[in-house]
Protein: Ribosome biogenesis GTPase YqeH
Organism: Lentibacillus juripiscarius
Amino acid sequence: MEKINCQGCGIPIQTTEADQAGYTPESALDRDTVLCQRCFRLKHYNDIQDVSMSDDDFLEMVSQIRDKEGLVVHLIDIFDAEGTIIKSLPRIIGDKPVILVGNKMDLLPKSTNRRKLTQWLRSEAKKAGITVKDVYLISSVKGHGLSDLTEAIDRWRNQQDVYIVGTTNVGKSTFINKLIEQTTGTENVITTSYFPGTTLGFIEIPLDDASAFIDTPGIVNKKQMAHYVSENDLKVITPKKEIKPRVYQLNSQQTLFIGGLARLDFLKGERQSFICYFANELAIHRTKLQKADDLFREHQGELLSPPDEDTLRILPEMDDHSFRLDSEKNDIVFPGLGWVTVPGSNLTVSAHSPKGVRVSVRNSFT
Ligand code: GDP
């Protein structure tokens, strides 16, 4: 195929992978103006769709804008902050100011302490070397928090462009579509002249005569659980509604299985409650630690599901890490699945998760 670039965003056009940047169906190549599907939808339906790109490709692509001025809005999924904070962000964007936005707040229980959550997000960002100007908690689906956020964006952007970045599945398209509704409501929102001759793959949504929202392709983070499960299982593990905490009283030497995708062994300590925050549809099983290995070997994919058959083919083997919990009230976080809050102290647990999706511990914000 001769090399063609999208006349909306400049990305090289390809006709084979529908969820990747630059895709357009072959039949659309005959049109006078060739647009990638993402630009086409935006132009004709005012509807943006996310496409993905590897971290390295992304890095190369955005290096062209590192030195431009502007504000970065980094959208993450509050339910999978570890998996969706982009660790390479400082390398990618240089020293532009950043607003960190935790999306999908509607999934967290009402008891969530927003101040603690915000603090924790700030510190996670800092660990990744990202200095954030502000943290906002929103729900794109419900529209919660959007007006405060757009006000903040307007304050911080200083009449410059606003780059929206995030990994795939954080809700970037839902968010931007809401912004489009609010800010433009007009047709033909993509401009073609902004980065002439470059191959960026960025879509622009004009804010005023001189500046725009710039939507970037979603970065793929290979450490996200989402990459190791089938589409069906992803539906099961992704919460759709507010999470109902499930409480288990455990003695030491007992184990909780989260489906067959993760496991928490209570090794040492006084009897405690273990409060589980996972999608309401995801089954949790309690068993004796002594029996846990056998149960897992014999019943992963059946009684302990997900994984389904498709997931079992791609799921890495389990890896375990022990944690000693000394302070009051910790969350043991299984990235992409959820977490278990343990209110007590002086205990030892061992957490098992697929290799590459590493479990961590944080101070609880619930
Ligand atoms: P993108 O890949 O980052 O563009 O993400 P999408 O906008 O396609 O959203 C990914 C999934 O998350 C979809 O199933 C959305 O319905 C869902 N989603 C997006 N925003 C929210 C939100 O605020 N709350 C909840 N519960 N789900 C959301």
